[in-house]
Every structure is written in structure tokens, then in C-alpha cells.
Design a protein that fits this description.
By secondary structure, the chain is α/β, with parallel strands linked by helices. It has 2 domains: 157 residues, Aspartate Aminotransferase, domain 1 (Alpha-Beta Complex); 258 residues, Aspartate Aminotransferase, domain 2, CATH 3.40.640.10. Helices cover 39% and strands 16% of the residues. The protein has a 7-stranded mixed β-sheet, sandwiched between helices. It is globular. The two termini are 33 Å apart.
């Protein structure tokens, strides 16, 4: 099915537009200086300089984030909210300061709308198991898209199986863009929530999320946005988008693993039941009845990942200092240059050619299995991802078992893309 969809152009950078023309231009960031902030990039792999192009899976950490974690454990490691001693007070203040930073980062209306989770996956599960259980019933429908990560499919499947509701799927075209006319048809009075990715991890597609949210809301449908692949690459304003829920992971944003953020409109969070029970999420407990705290604490049971939250705060500061506009410009330049270089390789096919993309290049190389591509590239010092990328329905849509995926961060360079292209040509030589 080949359908042309014209997506909004206002967010496209010129460097990405130039991809179509085979033209590219340099970013203004001092990338070589930035690379010095990332200790891991200095190492060699199999005797060759590391070329790290697996940023959609996880990004590397700047030294300042690493030092923040070290300082917490060395100087004021303590539990939060409940201690009266100095270390607990310092840890609590540092922890809660990050809630304010996350509020500012997303432009949420209130810090109470920021909930710390273990990552995007837990954030989606939290909404599915709390808001979903309360609001989705037998005969209702939950809407997702064909480009979703498994973490934005499986929780909704589980909910639908439990409630006797139906999971509906918005298809995509051959470029990896949503078929908007189908989305409009699938938004019906039975639809309770649309769960949609902002940026596809497998294709790089940037969805016209503001337009989609407005359309869903016109039908009375709530919207959860998976922002795991969006927040490292472009500015996000949840008030401007008017989304009901927005989730992201810290480890894709140059922060620690095991930490993430769920944003939710306060009225929705306040009406939702708790996700887990335990310490710190209660106001009082008796054997007869428990009373819960107000959001966000109602959803943060037990001792949280305190170091991870504090480290995330430093990562937010670091990204803010560089500027998401500058980051987007650098990565779009890499995308344009990489698209041009890889398109010159005989037999290579890029999967995901949306008009509006983030810095992801998924590809196949003739009949060579992506796992073989990834293995040979690793021996050349080039780290990419090979597989279905936790997006098996995407692979099924394009009738392929897997892809090789190079994904960019602002610390990557054109010379690294040259190394990638050279390593891919090495693959073709091996399999001749």
C-alpha cells in the first residue's frame, strides 16, 4: 500500500530538507570539545577507535553525570523524605530539585505532574494499570500504531485481555509514516485512549504529534505519548502539545539507567488509583483502611532510585546547556550526511524514509542478515544495533526479519559515518 502523506513542515530543519537533494551542511557545535566530556568515547574496540552509533538503545554519559552519582554515594547517600538528619535532608533536597528541573524541561504546569519511574516502560504500564483499569471496560477500544515499541503495545494488550476490550492499530505507509486518514476513521466513540510514539525507534519517523493530539481530543480520546526517542533530540512542551500523559527514560537522555519520568495532567493523576503499595506513598495506614498521599507521591512507593534521579537532573542541566536546538541541528546534519553516504552503497536499502525523521538509519543489505552485519561492524570498532528493535510489528509490515540500525547523538561526527560506510562495504566484501 503506497500512500503519500504530507506532514507538517514547520519543525523540519533545513539540513534534513537537503537530504533529498544530496546536500548537507555542517553544524555549529564544537563536537570535538563535547566528545571530551564522554570518557567512554576515548576507548578502542578490537584495536580500533570506538564509533558508537547505538544511541537509540542508550546514550553515553558525560563525566559530569558520572561524577554526580559518585558524589551522591560518597558524600550524602541517604534515604529521602523520612529522615531528620543532615544527609537525608541533603538527599531529599537534591531529589526534589530534579522534579522541578523535569517540570521545566517538559514545561509542565506543576511539579506535582512529574512522577519518577524506572523508565518509559514503567510509565506506560503505570498508566495502563491505573488509568486504564479504571476507565477502559468491555467493548471499549485502545488505539496504538504500527510503529510502536513493544513497551507501548504489550501493556495495552494485557489491559484489553483483562477487560474484554479491543486493541486497534493505525497502519503506516511504505515510508514509515502514519496513514492519517485511517487514524481519523479509527477514532470512534469506543476509543478510550490513543497510545502513540513521538519518534519511532525503528524508523526514525517523527510523528505530527500536536496535530494527532488535537484530533484525538476532538473525539474525546485521551492521549499517552511515548517520548523516549523524542526528548533527546527535540524540545517538548507538554502544555503546548496538550497531551494527557508523556513518558521518557533517563538513559536515552545522557542520564543513568533505571530512571524515567511520567508526566500526567494533575486532574487525571489525582483521580487515578495507586500503581503500587508501600512506604512513602501513604498518609496513614491502619488494618481497616489506608489513605494515600496526593500525586506525585501516591505513585512513588518505596525507596526510589535516588541516585538515578539526581543523576538525571545533571543530565538535564547538561543537555540544557548545549541546547536542544543545537542538538537537533547537529543530528539532522548527521542524518543528511549519513543518508547520502549509505545510499551510495550497492544493495543497501534504508527502511524508514519519512519526510520528517530523527537521527536513525535502519537498513538492510541484500540477503545478508543484520546480525552478521552487526558482528562484522563490531570487529571494525563500529557499534550499531541489529535485530527487530523491540518493534516486531514494524518488521512484519516491511516483510523483513530485522534491520541494522545506526542511530546518532550530538557527539557523533561525519568521520564516524565515514567509518560506518567503510565498515559496511567491508561486510559486502566478506559476503561476496
Amino acid at each position: 500500500m503506497k500512500t503519500k502523506i504530507k506532514l507538517p513542515q514547520k519543525n523540519l530543519t533545513q539540513s534534513h530538507k537537503d537530504t533529498k537533494k544530496g546536500q548537507v551542511k555542517n553544524s555549529s557545535l564544537n563536537v570535538e570539545k563535547i566528545r571530551k566530556d564522554f570518557p567512554i568515547l576515548k576507548q578502542k574496540v578490537h584495536g580500533k577507535p570506538l564509533v558508537y552509533l547505538d544511541n537509540a538503545a542508550t546514550t553515553q554519559k558525560p563525566l559530569v553525570v558520572i561524577e554526580t552519582l559518585d558524589k551522591y554515594y560518597r558524600e550524602y547517600n541517604s534515604n529521602i523524605h523520612r529522615g531528620l538528619h543532615l544527609l537525608s535532608e541533603k538527599a531529599t533536597a537534591a531529589y526534589e530539585a530534579v522534579r522541578l528541573k523535569a517540570q521545566k524541561f517538559l514545561n509542565a504546569a506543576d511539579s506535582k505532574e512529574i512522577i519518577f519511574t524506572r523508565g518509559t516502560t514503567e510509565g506506560i504500564n503505570l498508566v495502563a494499570q491505573t488509568w486504564g483499569r479504571k476507565n477502559v471496560a468491555a467493548g471499549d477500544e485502545v488505539l496504538v500504531t504500527n510503529m510502536e515499541h513493544h513497551s507501548n503495545i504489550v501493556p495495552w494488550q494485557m489491559l484489553c485481555e483483562e477487560k474484554g476490550s479491543t486493541l486497534k492499530v493505525v497502519p503506516i505507509n511504505d515510508a514509515g509514516e502514519l496513514l492519517m486518514e485511517y487514524l481519523k476513521k479509527l477514532l470512534t466513540p469506543k476509543t478510550k485512549i490513543l497510545a502513540i510514539t513521538h519518534v519511532s525507534n525503528a524508523l526514525g519517523t517523527v510523528n505530527p504529534i500536536a496535530e494527532i493530539i488535537k484530533l484525538a481530543h476532538s473525539k474525546g480520546v485521551k492521549v499517552l505519548v511515548d517520548g523516549a526517542q523524542a526528548v533527546p533530540h527535540l524540545p517538548v512542551d507538554v502544555q503546548e502539545l496538550d497531551c494527557d500523559f508523556y513518558v521518557f527514560s533517563g538513559h536515552k537522555l545522557y542520564g543513568p539507567t533505571g530512571i524515567g519520568v511520567l508526566y500526567g495532567k494533575y486532574a487525571l493523576l489525582d483521580a487515578m488509583p495507586p500503581y503500587q503499595g508501600g512506604g512513602d506513598m501513604i498518609s496513614s495506614v491502619t488494618f481497616e483502611k489506608t489513605f494515600y498521599k496526593k500525586p506525585p507521591y501516591k505513585f512513588e512507593a518505596g525507596t526510589p532510585h535516588i541516585a538515578g534521579v539526581i543523576g538525571l537532573g545533571t543530565a538535564l542541566d547538561y543537555v540544557g546547556k548545549i541546547g536542544l536546538g543545537n542538538i537537533a541541528s547537529q543530528e539532522q546534519d548527521l542524518l543528511a550526511y549519513g543518508t547520502k553516504k549509505l545510499s551510495e552503497i550497492p544493495g543497501l536499502k534504508i527502511i524508514g524514509t519519512a519526510q520528517h525523521k530523527a537521527g536513525v538509519l535502519s537498513f538492510t543489505l541484500g540477503e545478508i542478515h543484520p546480525h552478521d552485519i552487526g558482528t562484522i561492524l563490531d570487529r571494525q570498532g563500529v557499534a550499531i544495533r541489529a535485530g527487530h528493535h523491540c518493534a516486531q510489528p514494524v518488521m512484519e509490515r516491511f516483510q523483513i526479519p530485522a534491520t541494522a540500525r545506526a542511530s546518532f547523538a550530538f557527539y557523533n561526527t561525519r568521520s564516524e559515518i565515514d567509518a560506518l560506510a567503510k565498515a559496511i562495504r567491508k561486510v559486502t566484501e566478506v559476503f561476496k
